[in-house]
């Protein structure tokens, strides 16, 4: 820690490269927020004990004097005021560790306690059967019933493999720190392209959590270019084009269903999608194959 900032009712927003970062949407959103809020770096976690440098290799760069410099994988903390709010933000940007996840999470929780963080929000993105031409659905969940009710979230019912995000939330729960997990859906057929659409959806959902608008104009402009480029690529393959059109029909059907039931689409679309696909399979309807 290079300095100990004095913060007002801080919220910690974390995004990690790796398993939790489909289409790089989570880290794109986290980096955008750090820049938007003019956040300054004040601490980082030494990667030596947590990162496999053969899996996540350091980079060599050259400065203006052509001197070589090693840039190590980083998990860094930035702090800054949230415009229009009476609170500050801590943004944690980094890579999912390869080793000692519990110790890594304890470091983050320890810093959160020291700085009296009121809420931890993790950003994640998963690959899903969603079209690139429709808004990215975002799910928000928490394990604390009071938080679920206050913030209009869902109880986390996920069972299965998890990443550092899941371990960090478990550490927050054990430490008595309120935490929320936000996940956006990214089209799996363009998983390698950064998704500004999913990043914008995460920022907008975060804005509702903290009760303060977040300017996403820049992400919206990038989103228009992203959609145009992906549509152009998709149009070159008839099978992929047909598949995307089917995804669009599903998304539109789900949106109509959500509107009929009066359910907030942001937190319900993923659950509705799962139910919709199961019903199709049960009825013997064809479900288009996944793309790589």
Cα separation of the termini: 41 Å
Please write the CATH class name: Alpha Beta
The fraction of residues in strands falls at: 15-25%
Poorly predicted runs of 5 or more residues: 263-278, 285-292
In total, the number of domains comes to 1
Number of DSSP helical runs? 8
Number-wise, the strands total: 10
Secondary structure class reads alpha/beta
How would you characterize the largest beta sheet? 8 strands, mixed
Q: How much helix is in the residues?
A: 40-55%
CATH superfamily: PAC-like subunit
Q: Helix and strand string, N-terminal first? A: EHEEEEEHEEHEHEHHHH
Mean pLDDT: 86
**CATH overall fold name:** Rossmann fold
What descriptive keywords fit this protein?
8-stranded mixed β-sheet, Rossmann fold, 292 residues, 21% strand, alpha/beta, disordered C terminus, 8 helices, globular, two-stranded antiparallel ribbon
Report on this model:
The protein is an alpha/beta fold and 292 residues long. The chain has a single domain (11-282), classed as PAC-like subunit (Rossmann fold, 3-Layer(aba) Sandwich). It contains eight helices and ten strands. The protein has helices spanning 25-36, 101-114, 145-151, 164-175, 196-210, 217-234, 238-261, 265-282; strands spanning 11-17, 40-45, 59-62, 68-71, 75-81, 88-95, 119-128, 138-142, 154-155, 179-187. The strands form two sheets. An eight-stranded mixed β-sheet has the order 2-5-6-1-7-10-8-9, with helices on both faces. Strand 5 (75-81) and strand 6 (88-95) form a beta hairpin. It is globular and about 55 Å long.
């Amino acid at each position: 820690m290079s300095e100990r900032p004095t913060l007002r009712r801080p919220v910690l927003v974390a995004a990690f490269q790796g398993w939790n970062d489909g289409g790089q949407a989570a880290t794109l959103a986290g980096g955008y927020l750090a820049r938007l809020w003019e956040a300054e770096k004040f601490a980082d976690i030494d990667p030596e004990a947590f990162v496999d440098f053969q899996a996540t290799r350091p980079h060599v760069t050259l400065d203006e004097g052509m001197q070589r410099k090693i840039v190590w994988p980083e998990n860094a903390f930035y702090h800054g005021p949230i415009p229009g709010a009476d609170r500050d933000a801590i943004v944690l940007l980094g890579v999912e560790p390869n080793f000692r996840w519990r110790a890594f999470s304890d470091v983050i929780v320890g810093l959160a306690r020291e700085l009296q963080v009121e809420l931890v929000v993790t950003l994640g993105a998963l690959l899903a059967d969603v079209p690139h031409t429709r808004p990215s659905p975002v799910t928000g969940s928490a394990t604390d019933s009071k938080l679920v009710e206050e913030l209009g979230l869902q109880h986390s019912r996920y069972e299965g493999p998890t990443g550092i995000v899941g371990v960090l939330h478990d550490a927050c729960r054990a430490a008595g720190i309120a935490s929320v997990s936000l996940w956006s859906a990214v089209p799996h057929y363009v998983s390698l392209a950064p998704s500004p659409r999913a990043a914008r959806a995460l920022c907008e959902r975060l804005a509702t959590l903290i009760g303060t608008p977040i300017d996403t104009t820049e992400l919206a402009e990038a989103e228009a270019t992203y959609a145009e480029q992906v549509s152009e690529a998709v149009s070159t393959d008839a099978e992929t084009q047909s598949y995307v059109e089917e995804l669009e029909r599903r998304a539109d059907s789900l949106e109509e269903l959500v509107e009929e039931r009066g359910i907030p689409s942001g937190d319900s679309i993923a659950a509705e999608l799962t139910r919709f696909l199961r019903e199709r399979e049960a009825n013997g309807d064809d479900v288009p194959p996944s793309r790589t």
